[in-house]
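Appendix B, Record 12. Input sequence as logged:
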Amino acid sequence: MEKRIIRLPEVKNAVGLSAATIYRRIKAGEFPAQVKLGKHASGWTLSEIEDWIQKQDGHQSDNHTKSEKAFVPTQAFTTFATTAEMIKAPIGTELLRPDEITKITGHMTTHDQVAWLTNNRWQFHTNSKGEVIIGRMYARLKMCGVDLSGN
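Logged structural output:
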């Protein structure tokens, strides 16, 4: 088997996590550590990342994504303990709160949230302040794997 080293942008794309989340999980022993490639360079062994993804699929099949490009709704929510946590949350309002959008996307900044939502084919709006607007029922259905595209 070929051992291929991948760099951070490819790792982020493969697992759907931000760099900060990846490093936090490495520190907690919950994600493969990078290998040193040089004085100022590091990467990850592709096979270790693939193994980690497989473990997430087998252990928490409704919480993790393999890739933002190959979006699987029931596997996309890496920051929730379970998809049920979001689905069972009190409705409160018809729109998701900013902290809920952060949990779903794994990103704090609006720019990164918009990029994640676009890559994962979510329907959303932005208000005049540039804040992301997502309907709560839409998010619940999307997280359950319901295809809302009409195709």
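The longest strand covers residues 41-45.
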